[in-house]
Design a protein that fits this description.
66% of the residues lie in helices and 7% in strands. By secondary structure, it is mostly helical. Helix 1 packs across helix 5 and helix 7 packs antiparallel against helix 8. One of its GO terms (molecular function) is DNA binding.
């Protein structure tokens, strides 16, 4: 889905062809390598978007001694589906790192709706953490496991507090239009 969002967002800026998008994915940061986006995967996503009726071929450029370039444009349905796909990124993400493609394309969605999604996610996360803390108080461990329980409890607690803090910071920055 992230690749499809990237393609649709590039087509919102203007018509383009797959090879150009592949180059944009690798410059200046090699996102294509980091995300495992090969040329064949990219073409697969273009084909998928065509089959979904979100994009279409708008031009074929013929060059001597080179393969034809298929230039794609976004259709009305694609413009309507892009925000839905971005909202799904926020809804399905378990970590902020899984929200990057949504954050990069936040200009195509309603910020208030994103904040609403994130606040709901934050409430669920905090409620889950409180439940775990209550459960942790009830667990009795052998003396020889006490150190492990303390270590794991500290690790999980620190990680959870860190996640809550950064999620709150993300919500604040979206509200302030800093992101």
């Amino acid at each position: 889905m992230d690749t499809q969002i990237f393609i649709l967002s590039k087509l919102m800026e203007g018509n383009t062809y797959p090879y150009k998008i592949k180059k944009q994915l690798s410059d200046p940061v090699p996102l294509d390598q980091l995300g495992g986006v090969t040329e064949s995967k990219l073409y697969y996503h273009f084909d998928s978007l065509v089959k979904q009726g979100l994009i279409e071929i708008v031009e074929i450029i013929k060059e001597e001694h080179r393969p034809d370039k298929q230039v794609f444009g976004i259709m009305t349905k694609g413009r309507e589906e892009l925000p839905k796909k971005i909202y799904k990124v926020f809804e399905n993400a378990d970590t902020i790192s899984e929200m990057v493609v949504g954050l990069l394309n936040i200009k195509y969605v309603d910020r208030d709706k994103v904040v609403e999604i994130l606040e709901k996610k934050l409430k669920i996360f905090i409620a889950h953490w409180e439940h775990i803390m209550d459960f942790d108080k009830q667990i009795q461990v052998d003396k020889d496991k006490e150190n492990l329980k303390e270590f794991l409890g500290g690790y999980i607690s620190t990680r959870t507090e860190h996640t809550i803090s950064w999620l709150e910071e993300l919500i604040k920055r979206i509200q302030q239009m800093d992101i």
